Structure formats: C-alpha cells, structure tokens
C-alpha cells in the first residue's frame, strides 16, 4: 500500500485542480458547519486496477455530504466527482458511465487521470472552487438557449403561448416549458397572466429590449448569408433634421453594399406611427423620442441628444434682446412644423406651458428649404432642431434665440417594434446610421 501526501500529489498532478461545484450544494446544517469551509479529505479504498471495471476510482469520505436539493440521479461523464447518496462513497469517474439513481455530482476533476490510476491508496484534498469557475459536466443545465429566447420573443409578440407555438411551428406545452425554464434561470417573472392574455412585466420589457436587438442581429446575419438581402425594400419614418444631416452618409454606406435595395423615407408623424410600426408597414423610425403615450409596444435606441431652437437671420430685430420670451415672437411671422409631427407636438407642449396657445402669424411646413429661404428673406422666426441648422450656424447665416434653455432638449434615436426585429436590410441601414452618428461625433 502506498500513501501519497498532499504535496507529492500536487507534484504528480502537475498543477491539476479538482473543482467541486460546492455552490450547487446547499450549506450543511449548523451542527456540521465546520465542514462547509474545511477541505474535503478522502481516502481511496485499495483497488488494482481502478474500481468498477476501470470506470471510476472510489474513496470513503467517512461521512455523507449534504445533498439536499440535488437531483435524484445523474449520468456521469469522465472527470465527474460524484457521491452515491445512500452511502459515504465519493468517486471520480475516469470515463462515461451509465445513469444511476441516487448518484449526485458536486464537482469535477480537470487534471490528468494518470495520477489517480495507481495501485493502492492515495490521499487527496478537494478544495472549494472559486465562484464562477465551476464545471458544468452533467449538472442541471443553467444556460439560456436560443429556444428560450425565440419562445419568449414570440410570446411577447402574440401575448399568447398558444399563438406563439403556432408561429414557431411547435406545441403549446413546449413553449410553456421554455418560458418556465427561462423565468427560473433569470429569477424573474417576465409576464403577467391576465384574462386578456400574457402581458410583459417591467422586467420582461427590459429583457425584451435587449433580446430583440440581439436576435435581430443574428437573424440579419443568417438572412445575409442566405442571400435574403436581395430584392427587398426599407421603409422608414425620418425626421427632416436627420434626413438632412445623418441619412445621406448612412444611405451612401448602405447603397455601396446593396444598391439594388429600395430605400423609402416618409415624413414622421406621431399619430399612427405606433400602429404602422406594429403592423410592419414601416421598418423603423429615426428621429426624436415619441411621447410616452405613443411608446407602448415600441423600443427606442438612444443615439444622441439635441435641442429644438428658434432661429432668425443675423440682423433680425430680436437678436441681442435681453429678457426675451416666447410672447415676443408673436410680433413676427413664425414658421413651425405641421401639426401631428413629432417635433410639432413637442413645440406645442413647450409653448402651452408658457401661456402661448397659437401664434397670430403662423406658417406650417415640413419643408426645410422653404423655412431656410423664407427666414433669409424676412423677419420670420423658425423653430427647428439644432442639428438641422448646423451648416447655417457654422456659416453665420442664422442666429439662435436664447429662449428655450434646455426645455426642448430631446433624445434622438431609432424606434422599432418591441419583440419584432426589422428586416435584414433595415437592420443594416440602422447600423449605417449608428456609424454615421459616431463619425459626426454626435454620440
């Protein structure tokens, strides 16, 4: 009988480590609390060759580990450290073995097996592994898989497990099980069960925003590799300021890759945009963040912030006026976007909050070219996003009036339907928008 001390075993294993998954095993009762922190010492019974037809090497712990909450059996793989529940035997499997009831797995050995496959007894010490470095082996799978995410996204889109199953081409019990597993893995309830169907909780909405973007990128990559980019069209609601400053560069990048894809821009209006996005009639909207009442079922990706400002020509009578208020603007023609647009809704809220319901001399248009030329030829006051007037500001052709401070500072980004990623071409154009925003130093 040979007896190898701990130091000699370390040398023979050449720095191999044994990693028991102690974090998977509930803490022992108070009467045995000492063993929760002490190393586990085990002495292998004499065996030559290793025990059980060469499949495992067995040791006697002298006491049973607390396996409360562990599975009632497992099918060990090579390197699994296991305990047979009814006894105090600890085994390290040298090769895969048949599933056994009562066998639990608190850890794994990741060193060479030669040091264990020796004649006689050896003494080993098994230490608690660092958290996050434990092995998986045949422990219960705690990974989130693609099926979990696809089922979650389908349920969020349809508000029904049954309809989600139909959409995915599977059966309702399978989708229910995937949702239950996902909620268990996340430790969060993702849906409220109501009479009208499944409704996303706050945690579910947060998770969906990330899942949608991630899954959309995957879908886009798959579609691109399968050649599904050809022959498609991208339709987007785009605000005039970003249409002028951001979209030319983004579309140039996009068309360099896919010149055959048609790109269509529509004037962005807050009313109906939610429905158009939800029905898939529009791939995405690019512009300022919609009001909260219009954001249900939508996801907003913030790209940068900018303010709405009132602009005049350099020699306008209001330039340099102290203590200027919005009421002073009513003495001049005022140019605003048409009603129902995202920017106009924001301007109206700003004006009403300061006691102005309607200007007496008003021009409504979404034409930037008209507003710019009209401003140069008259004493008109034009309200536009700062980005839309960037070139004119740099050229000294317009002057901003100090009226709004930060009151009309708003987020600019991309709005998409939550739980329903845009098409592959739309995803690519959105990525080109991100790149253009970064290149212009706006993000």
Short précis:
The chain is α+β, with helices and mostly antiparallel strands. The chain has 13 helices and 20 strands. The strands form 4 sheets. Strands 12, 13, 14, 15, 16, 17, 18, 19 and 20 form a 9-stranded mixed beta sheet that branches.
Task: Give a verbal description of the structure.
The structure is a single chain. This protein has 13 helices and 20 strands. β5 (80-84) and β6 (89-93) form a beta hairpin. The model is unreliable at 1-50 and 129-140 (pLDDT under 50). It is elongated, with a radius of gyration of 33 Å. The chain has 443 residues and is an alpha+beta fold. The protein has four domains: 6-126, Cyclophilin, CATH 2.40.100; 146-225, Arc Repressor Mutant, subunit A, CATH 1.10.10.10; 233-303 and 411-439, D-Maltodextrin-Binding Protein, domain 2; 306-410, 3-Layer(aba) Sandwich (D-Maltodextrin-Binding Protein, domain 2), CATH 3.40.190.290. α3 crosses α4 (161-168), α4 packs across α5 (172-186) and α6 packs across α13.
């Amino acid at each position: 009988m040979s007896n190898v001390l701990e130091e000699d075993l370390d040398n023979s294993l050449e720095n191999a480590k044994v990693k028991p998954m102690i974090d998977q095993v509930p803490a022992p009762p108070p009467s045995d609390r000492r063993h929760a922190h002490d190393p586990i010492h085990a002495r292998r019974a004499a065996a030559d060759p290793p025990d059980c037809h060469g499949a495992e090497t067995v040791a006697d712990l002298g006491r049973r580990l607390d396996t409360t909450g562990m599975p009632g059996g497992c099918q060990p793989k090579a390197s699994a450290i296991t305990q047979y529940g009814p006894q105090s035997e600890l085994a390290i499997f040298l090769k895969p073995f048949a599933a056994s009831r009562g066998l639990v797995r608190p850890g794994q050995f990741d060193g060479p097996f030669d040091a264990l496959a020796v004649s006689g007894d050896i003494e080993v010490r098994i230490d608690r592994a660092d958290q996050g470095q434990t092995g998986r082996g045949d422990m219960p799978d705690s990974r989130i898989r693609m099926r979990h995410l696809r089922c979650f996204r389908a349920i969020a889109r349809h508000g029904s497990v049954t309809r989600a199953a139909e959409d995915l081409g599977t059966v309702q019990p399978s989708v229910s099980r995937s949702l239950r597993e996902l909620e268990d893995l996340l430790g969060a309830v993702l849906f409220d069960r109501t009479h009208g169907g499944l409704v996303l909780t706050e945690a579910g909405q947060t998770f969906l925003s990330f899942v949608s973007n991630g899954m959309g990128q995957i879908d886009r990559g798959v579609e691109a590799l399968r050649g599904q980019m050809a022959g498609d069209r991208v339709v987007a609601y785009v605000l005039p300021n970003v249409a002028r400053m951001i979209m030319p560069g983004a579309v140039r990048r996009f068309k360099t890759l896919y010149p055959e894809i048609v790109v269509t821009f529509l004037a962005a209006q807050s009313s109906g945009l939610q429905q158009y996005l939800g029905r898939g009639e529009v791939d995405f909207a690019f512009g300022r963040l919609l009001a909260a009442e219009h954001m249900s079922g939508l996801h907003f990706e913030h790209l940068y912030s900018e303010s709405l400002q009132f602009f005049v020509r350099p020699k306008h009578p209001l330039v340099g006026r102290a203590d200027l208020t919005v009421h002073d603007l009513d003495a001049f023609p005022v140019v605003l976007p048409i009603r129902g647009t995202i920017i106009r809704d924001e301007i109206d809220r700003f004006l009403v909050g300061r006691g102005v319901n309607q200007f007496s001399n008003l021009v409504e248009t979404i034409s930037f070219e008209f507003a710019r030329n009209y401003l140069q030829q008259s004493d008109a006051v034009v309200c536009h996003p700062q980005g839309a007037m960037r070139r004119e500001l740099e050229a000294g052709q317009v002057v901003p009036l100090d009226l709004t401070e930060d009151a009309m500072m708003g987020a600019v980004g991309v709005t998409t339907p939550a739980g329903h990623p845009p098409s592959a071409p739309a995803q690519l154009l959105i990525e080109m928008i991100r790149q253009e925003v970064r290149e212009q130093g706006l993000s």
